[in-house]
Model the fold of this input.
Amino acid sequence: MTNHNDDQVVTKPNADSIAQSATAASKKGPPPVHLWNPPFCGNLDMRIARDGTWFYLGTPIGRKPLVKLFSSIIRKDGGDYFLVTPVEKVGIKVDDAPFVAVDFDVGSTGSHSYLTFTTNVEDKVTAGPDNPIRVIRDAKTGEPSPYILVRTNLEALIDRKSFYRLVDMGEYDTIGDENWFGVRSSGTFFPIIPSNALDI
Done:
């Protein structure tokens, strides 16, 4: 039976120890966090705000290389977020999504156009079947929250200016029996809002 005393045996991790382990694990390329299964070492006082700002012990992390390093070892298991290295796994708090898509480029190959997003930690991801765009609307206010899948289970919140650009590029298509307004990338249509809701 596990109890709190058992947890105290594990050395409490901190940002420095996580950074050292992540740096060592990153030397051979992108960290394969999905393959690691280290012991859970408790929660770290680290939070990612909705605007993409990282906080440690309540203070913003000002060093972008450190933020990029931490962002490379995020994993989402169930509804919870963790920083994972080969030797430790710690819980962190994410207010909305772990990344923010701050811009996108439009390109084309043959008959298909594509949208390639850049995140606040300089990841690039092209919207398509493997990296879908989805939009959630607040039930009370109708305010949209658009996301794009960046990595397994990890999304970026598309920032407001980029979302407005997407809306300007929008088109109509039918899904099932319903007509939708949305955007298309890599040959895939991503619905934003039912067409009839635009007429209200």
User: Anything to note?
Assistant: The radius of gyration is 19 Å. The CA atoms of residues 149 and 155 lie 4 Å apart. The chain is about 20% helix and 45% strand.
